[in-house]
TrEMBL record:
Transmembrane segments: none annotated. Increases the formation of ribosomal termination complexes and stimulates activities of RF-1 and RF-2. It binds guanine nucleotides and has strong preference for UGA stop codons. It may interact directly with the ribosome. The stimulation of RF-1 and RF-2 is significantly reduced by GTP and GDP, but not by GMP. GO terms for biological process: regulation of translational termination. HAMAP family: Rel_fac_3 (MF_00072). Gene3D superfamilies: P-loop containing nucleotide triphosphate hydrolases, Peptide chain release factor 3, domain III, Translation factors. GO terms for molecular function: GTP binding; GTPase activity; guanosine tetraphosphate binding; translation release factor activity, codon nonspecific; translation release factor activity, codon specific. This is Peptide chain release factor 3. Residues 1-35 are annotated as: Disordered. Keywords: Cytoplasm, GTP-binding, Nucleotide-binding, Protein biosynthesis.
Length: 578
């Protein structure tokens, strides 16, 4: 699990060319500026910029998320990104200590117990001349809606697969979400230090299951115990893995083509023969890298490596820099927003409450859509048409959050607030623009929520509304009767909710089976809606926005409404638009 709060760090990573440092804790382990950097100079861009017209500060930004099946190595890879970005000193050994150092993504005991990342955060770090913004996505499928919204805030995704397992179910689902948005995808095939599948088989599986062209950016040499590194297909060089030091950057050997006799000095004959044969086949059978096709989401370059051994990670990072997209235009109404527009705009894709249990703050995560934001700017909150002075925006660095003095299109900042900002809200310098395409899905599981102490009903309402606004659950207030019906996508969310309501509000609650199993938003002209709601009172409720929701147990009911009330539309998704 990645840590976002002060961490206990082991001694700094040993730079490859230096003698070992004395062991011991650095005095100020959390100051990024004082972190010793890994002895590695990131590659400068190999390719010409796609958009030479973009301001340099915007063009250097890469905003992405990692998608993977649990256990494929997302957390380990994230840590290595932070390590090579100079944001932490030693990955794999970071650990939170004690209550005060509870990592931010760990603040729910639930999450700690189960080892699942249920909350998403954003991290920024520099890599060479680039600024990377990495948005964390929850790995568990029960939190798919959160993941979906997170993916609306990024310009690309890194798909991590386990070399032994190939494309797993959750990867596939997340990939489909990326495809809906035509997100460019870069693939990292992890755990090559273990027995893994044949390279062609892995590539074929991705091509077939995900219907995307795959181009090898690197080619593994040996497998499992015999895995010694990769041949970099794009830069024609060998990268050899150092099994002895997991935090050291791999050795790079420059070669001049695969017939360079220098290769034989580093690769045993039997592995070399296989490599030569496979690379020749790969070049003949697989498509060559087409950067435009990558940007359009039709082709994915694949790197092979071992995150735990820090191997293949910097090549992937160079790949993100070189072939990943710059900040992209955002769909909005009544017009699209381009990143280079001088006026600032951004949209909220996530709200997280009580990040610090000691303060009841809420942080709205804003993806900057355009312009150059400076701290203290007065923006317009388009939904309420009210001005909002953003005086304490935060930037999420690997081990801390800091005041953001400025931000550019592509960046993600956190805005502490008392509930004014909701998912889907747009902030601009005055223009009434509303970013679109952030969905809310009808829940698949519904339960009635009751406070253990009936006198605490008001408190319960407050807590539930907060979670609804945060996007953690759907909360419906039935028009008839008392209590609340809570809707979620996956059963685990009920457990997380119960635990958070108790932890954050000191309120024990019970979830009980509800008579309903489905919810649909109701729309239509006023007369038709009124007639419908009057005739179906027992099934009507309102969500936290006050929108009308039809609750039922039977698909048959939904079909009946559609047949009997032609003026009414029932929908399973609602666009969250501020
Ligand atoms: P996730 O976030 O995608 O769920 O995966 P995570 O990084 O937590 O990795 C899952 C397990 O796989 C961890 O082992 C991790 O150490 C291991 N792992 C990650 N990358 C590699 C790799 O390149 N090679 C090998 N052999 N293993 C790798 P664990 O036993 O579950 O946890 P831990 O005790 O190592 O922390």
């Amino acid at each position: 699990m990645v840590s976002f709060l002060p961490l206990e760090l082991d001694p700094p990573a040993r730079p490859a060319t230096h003698r070992p440092r004395a062991r011991g804790r650095p005095k100020t382990p959390n100051r990024l500026a004082e972190s010793p950097r890994v002895a590695y100079t990131p590659a400068m861009p190999d390719t010409a910029p796609n958009r030479p017209d973009l301001p340099a500060e915007i063009a250097r930004r890469r905003t992405f998320a990692i998608i993977s099946h649990p256990d494929a190595g997302k957390t380990t890879l994230t840590e290595k990104f932070l390590l090579f970005g100079g944001a932490i000193q030693m990955a794999g050994q970071v650990r939170a200590k004690g209550e005060a150092r509870r990592t931010r993504s760990d603040f729910m005991q639930m999450e700690k117990d189960r080892g699942i990342s249920v909350s998403a955060s954003a991290m920024s770090f520099d890599y060479g001349t680039y600024r990377f913004n990495l948005v964390d996505t929850p790995g568990h499928s029960d939190f798919s809606e959160d993941t979906y919204r997170t993916l609306t805030a990024v310009d690309a995704a890194i798909m991590v697969i386990d070399g032994a397992k190939g494309v797993e179910s959750q990867t596939r689902k997340l990939f489909e979400v990326c495809r809906l948005r035509d997100l460019p995808i870069l693939t990292f095939c992890n755990k090559m230090d273990r027995e893994s599948r044949d390279t062609f088989e892995i590539i074929d599986e991705i091509q077939e299951l995900l219907a995307i062209d795959v181009t090898p950016a690197s080619w593994p040499i040996g497998v499992g115990q015999d895995f010694i590194g990769c041949y970099d297909m794009l830069r024609d060089r060998l990268e050899l893995m150092d099994r002895a030091d997991r935090n050291r950057v791999a050795e790079t050997i420059q070669i001049k083509g695969l017939d360079d006799p220098k290769i034989a000095e580093h690769v045993p004959a039997h592995l070399l023969d296989k490599l030569l044969e496979e690379v020749e086949m790969a070049r003949a059978l697989l498509p060559a890298l087409d950067p435009q096709s990558v940007l359009e989401g039709h082709m994915t370059p694949i790197w092979f490596g071992s995150a735990i051994n820090s191997f293949g990670v910097k090549e992937l990072m160079d790949g993100i820099a070189n072939y990943g997209p710059e900040p992209q235009p955002q769909r909005a109404l009544p017009r699209q927003i381009s990143p280079e527009e001088t006026k600032v705009s951004g949209f909220v894709f996530k709200v997280q409450a009580n990040m610090d249990p000691k303060h009841r703050d809420r942080v709205a995560f804003l993806r900057m859509a355009s312009g150059h934001f400076r701290r203290g700017m007065k923006l317009t909150h388009v939904r309420s048409k009210k001005p909002l002075t953003v005086s304490a925006p935060v930037l999420f660095l690997a081990s801390d959050r800091e005041l953001a003095e400025e931000a550019w299109a592509g960046d993600i900042i956190g805005i502490p607030n008392h509930g004014q900002l909701r998912i889907g809200d747009t902030l601009t310098e005055g223009e009434a623009l509303r970013v679109s395409g952030i969905p809310s899905f009808a829940p698949e599981l519904l339960q009635t929520c009751r406070a253990g102490d009936p006198m605490k009903a008001k408190h319960l309402e407050k807590a539930l509304m907060q979670f609804a606004e945060e996007g953690a659950a759907k909360v419906f207030k039935p028009a008839f009767g008392s209590g609340f019906i809570v809707g979620v996508v996956g059963a685990l969310q009920f457990e997380v909710l119960a635990s958070r309501i108790e932890l954050e509000y000191g309120l024990p609650v019970r979830f009980e089976p509800s008579q309903f199993t489905s919810a649909r938003w109701v729309s239509g002209d006023k007369e038709a809606v009124d007639a419908f709601t009057n005739a179906n009172k027992q099934h009507i409720s309102h969500d936290h926005d006050g929108d009308i929701v039809y609750l039922t147990r039977l698909q048959w009911d939904i079909d009946r409404v559609e047949r009997d009330y032609p003026g009414i539309t029932l929908t399973a998704t609602k666009e969250m638009m501020g």
